[in-house]
Design a protein that fits this description.
Elements (H helix, E strand, L loop, with lengths): L4 H15 L8 H14 L5 H8 L5 H11 L11 H18 L7 E7 L5 H13 L7 E8 L2 H9 L1 E2 L1 H4 L5 H7 E3 L4 E3 L1 H4 L2 E5 L14 E4 L8 H13 L6 E4 L14 E4 L2 E4 L12
Parallel strand pairs: 1-2, 1-7, 2-6, 7-8
Antiparallel strand pairs: 3-5, 4-5, 9-10
Helix pairs in contact: 1-3, 2-4, 5-6
The chain binds S-adenosylmethionine.
Length: about 280
């Protein structure tokens, strides 16, 4: 499709406001490959018309189609491995010790923000089961959210094709936590019950969320511009207690957002404790 720079700019601005994903004109091929089906389906002649129609109050369905088309949902079980090792060998043991001295000694709340199709929260749930032998005696909940309706629907079903299963799951974990259904695998109820799935946009206020002991917000901030990254991060800090642990993607470095985001290391893993400073004083 031929369209003017102004038309493309209008659509790019609309998408950024809608979901934070920051494109530029060099990503025109991405707009074309991901949005042309929508144009055809809705008989829309230009990107400008698409942006204008989608902006109208009654166009929630069209907006959702754009979000589903434009978001990159690449994910896998135990992605990058080291955060899950840190969770198992450092974060959970520390948290369990600390919980003994709180009013809710057996409550753990975890948020997988931008969970895509669910491999991340199911990996977290497996780590909890592998690390806490009597986990069912604990009040544990993982909240898993994503802006994409398609992603959340698939995550909530918990059914995966063999090629998805092969990415990150060992045969032992597969046999222990999944049921074979012929051509696909389904997570066992003992994992599924630990997770609540919700469609949520990280750009919108976190009403009714938190506090979370641990937040995984990985491989989503890279799609946002710097002010949006900072805004999302500072709001995440507000739904974390002083002892909270924050994991971001391996290519997402938070040092640029100030000393509050000093990286903590465990073996090859990096995580943040943004509400703690030396002496245990809360910063936010
Ligand atoms: C590359 S996946 C990362 C999945 C998982 N966290 C991981 O690291 O494997 C990025 C996810 O961010 C979601 N996303 C993009 N913009 C979002 C927003 N504004 N609010 C919530 N989720 C968003 C996308 O739908 C996509 O599923």
């Amino acid at each position: 499709m031929t369209c003017s720079n102004n038309e493309i700019a209008e659509l790019i601005t609309f998408i950024q406001k809608l979901c934070g994903v920051c494109l530029n004109e060099s990503k025109l091929y991405l707009l074309e490959t991901r949005l042309d089906d929508i144009l055809k389906r809705h008989n829309i002649a230009s990107y400008q018309e698409l942006a204008r129609r989608a902006a109208s109050p009654g166009a929630a369905r069209l907006r959702q189609e754009i979000i589903d088309a434009i978001t990159t949902r690449e994910t896998l079980f135990f992605r990058d491995e080291s955060p899950f090792q840190a969770l198992q060998h450092k974060v959970l043991p520390e948290l369990i010790d600390l919980k003994q001295n709180t009013p809710f000694p057996r409550r753990i709340r975890i948020w997988s923000a931008a969970c895509s199709t669910g491999q991340e929260p199911y990996s977290i749930a497996i780590v909890l089961r592998e690390t806490i032998p009597n986990v069912d005696a604990w009040d544990v909940q993982i909240l898993a959210t994503d802006i994409s309706q398609e992603a959340i629907a698939k995550a909530s079903r918990g059914e995966y094709e063999p090629f998805e299963i092969q990415r990150g799951l060992s045969p032992r974990l597969l046999n222990q936590y999944f049921v074979n259904q012929g051509s696909s695998w389904r997570v066992r109820d003992e994992l599924r019950w630990m997770i609540k799935f919700e469609q949520r946009n990280l750009l919108e206020p976190f009403v009714g969320l938190g506090p979370f002991d641990i937040v995984f917000c990985r491989n989503v901030l890279i799609y946002f511009d710097k002010p949006t990254r900072k805004d999302v991060l500072l709001r995440i800090c507000k739904v974390m207690p002083q002892h909270g642990y924050l994991f971001v993607g391996s290519s997402e470095y938070l040092g640029e957002f100030g000393p509050q985001f000093r990286p903590q290391h465990h073996c090859r893993a990096v995580y943040y404790r943004p509400n703690l400073v030396a002496g245990g004083v809360v910063r936010v």
